[in-house]
Design brief:
single chain; alpha/beta; Metallo-beta-lactamase, Chain A; Ubiquitin-like (UB roll); 6-stranded mixed sheet
Length: 559
């Protein structure tokens, strides 16, 4: 009798980032990647979003291992949060494990159950054998995963693309792909990030040449904006700077941490031992000999560029003669922010050049690459992952074109259980898989209600009414005082403010005249009356905060 197999995505489907996929074989659980994603503009104040670990924590005794495909945040960023509640060995390539250790250390978490694997490693568990294959991505030592059972293999590609000219640490092992495909692949989980774009992605060699030419041709200071963990791009910038006789100044804690780790493990190389300079050397370096490489918080370059353009950056202020060279391809969701950033840079006197204007650059497979992977693997079942729904759908269509029938293709939602029984995959319920939002040190304590309040505050502001009463005597000691922030300009709205004060006084006086007294009920009546009046006058609904204070025995008590 063949094994019972379940595939459960806790993240990474119908969204970009936050990759986490579970494969269960009988009573063993295997976890593929533990990533996070960065919030869009609707998640006000949220730092990052991580998967819901409820199912894994409830079944932590069944988790045999956690496997990481590469060192980007969308694959390892949420690992510290999972390891707080789960104790399981973590496997990955040498460089991926070093970055994972560095990420865990940032959260002051003591954890040492890490294990290094490579493309020649094979690990036997009770119900499955795990092996790996090299892939090409924008960070060195990326691996795909093969989980082999008696029913066939589950293959997870991780992030990949095909580049015939890739360097050694980035090269795909095509012979290994053919070998895996010849050994009964039951299901292929393949990334979909670039499935909609038919354009050929430029090779890394072509990208390196474009970067070299751009840096060599500029006479003034150059500020290069990149993603911190895109080591292929960083290496190209280092090489171009050295060839042009420029020194490189790094900004951004993530960038410094990743570059330091990469240099230590020989995943980045410096042609000039003195290529990198410190803040003290910054002011002494002529503009035509300086290149600033910046990424900002969480490796995101755009917000840091805005601070530079506004003069709020600790080290760099954009000025006349500067070239801001963006060597990453921003997501569609960031297009508005990128346009705003360009405008700020030009206002500050700089110029902007986007590498995406010259080349189609990406670390993800285009449609031709995706179909080539399917042809290598020859899977019985296909599960597109890592992308918004439209990208998963486009990838499913590509699978149909290479002969995979629609009843063998599953576009899953977060938490769906895809179960293999009696030689067929079927949907079999779901597990919790909501977004868990991180704000500061708070994990999951920001829900939809808090986000709604933040949205209202950002759009309509806040209106505060303060009044003092003597509950025993049923009198108002100090009439209402109102103030507002982000709602109306007070000096031009005196009548509105005065009428609001009178409404509060009236509500409180009427309430005190009654027999019952409940603080919550009194505040609710104030909110309702003010909300109705303010909306009638302005067609806006600010957050209304009533503050009722009580005078009792010569003490002032805030309620």
């Amino acid at each position: 009798m063949s094994s019972s197999i379940k595939i459960i995505p806790l993240g990474g489907v119908r969204e970009n980032g936050k990759n986490l996929y579970i494969v269960e074989v009988n009573d063993e659980i295997f976890v593929f990647d533990v990533g996070l994603k960065y919030p869009d503009n609707s998640l006000l104040g949220i730092d990052v979003v991580i998967p819901d670990f409820t199912y894994l924590i409830e079944n932590k005794n069944r988790i045999s291992a956690i496997f990481l495909t590469h060192g980007h945040a969308d694959a390892i960023g949420a690992l510290p949060y999972l390891l707080e509640g789960v104790d399981a060995p973590v496997f990955g390539s040498k460089f991926t494990i070093e970055l994972a250790k560095s990420t865990v250390k940032q959260y002051d978490l003591v954890y040492d159950d890490f294990h290094i694997v490579d493309a020649d490693t094979e690990i036997e568990f009770q119900n499955a054998v795990l092996s790996f294959f090299r892939t090409t991505h924008t960070i060195a030592d990326s691996l795909g995963i093969v989980l082999t059972t008696d029913a066939g293999s589950i293959v997870y590609t991780g992030d990949f693309k095909f580049d015939q000219a890739a360097m050694k640490d980035y090269a795909t092992d095509f012979a290994r792909l053919a070998e895996i495909g010849g050994q009964n692949v039951l299901a292929l989980l393949s990334e979909s990030s670039n499935s909609e774009n038919p354009m050929q992605v430029a090779s890394e060699r072509a990208t390196a040449e474009t970067i070299r030419e751009t840096i060599a041709e500029w006479d003034g200071r150059i500020i290069v904006a990149s993603v911190a963990s895109n080591l292929a791009r960083i290496q190209q910038v280092f090489d171009a700077a050295a060839k042009a006789g420029r020194k490189v100044f790094l900004t951004g804690l993530d960038l410094e941490r990743i570059v330091k780790t990469a240099l230590k493990h020989h995943k980045l190389h410096l042609r000039d031992a003195d290529l990198l300079i410190n803040p003290k050397q910054l002011s002494k370096t002529p503009d035509n000999e300086l290149l600033v490489l910046e990424t900002g918080k969480m490796g995101e370059p755009i917000k840091s560029l805005q601070r530079m353009a506004k003069g709020h950056h600790k080290y760099i202020k954009i000025k006349d003669g500067d070239l801001v060279y963006v060597v990453t391809t921003p997501s569609i969701a960031m297009e508005t922010q990128v346009a705003k950033t360009e405008d700020l840079v030009y206002r500050a006197g700089g110029q902007v050049k986007l590498i995406a204007s010259d080349l189609r650059v990406s670390g993800h497979a285009n449609p031709q690459d995706l179909q080539l992977m399917m042809n290598f693997m020859k899977p019985r079942y296909f599960i597109p992952i890592q992308g918004e729904y439209r990208q998963l759908s486009a990838h499913a269509k590509l699978a149909g074109e290479v002969g995979i029938t629609s009843d063998h293709i599953f576009i899953l939602n977060r938490g769906d259980i895809l179960e293999y029984k009696q030689n067929v995959f079927t949907l079999a319920g779901s597990v919790p898989a909501e977004n868990v939002m991180i704000d500061g040190i708070g994990v999951g304590d920001i829900g939809n209600i808090v986000l709604r309040d933040r949205k209202v505050l950002s759009e309509d502001g806040i209106f505060i009414a303060v009044i003092t009463i003597n509950r025993r005597d049923k009198t108002i000691i100090s009439k209402a005082k109102v103030t507002t922030r982000g709602f109306v300009y007070v000096k031009q709205s005196r009548d509105l403010m005065k009428e609001s004060q009178e409404i509060v006084d009236e509500v409180v006086a009427n309430y005190l005249a009654g027999d019952d007294f409940e603080w919550a009920k009194l505040k609710q009546e104030i909110r309702e009356r003010l909300n109705s009046y303010l909306f009638d006058q302005t067609k806006r609904r600010p957050v209304i905060l009533p503050v009722v204070m009580e005078v009792s025995r010569n003490k002032l008590n805030k309620k």
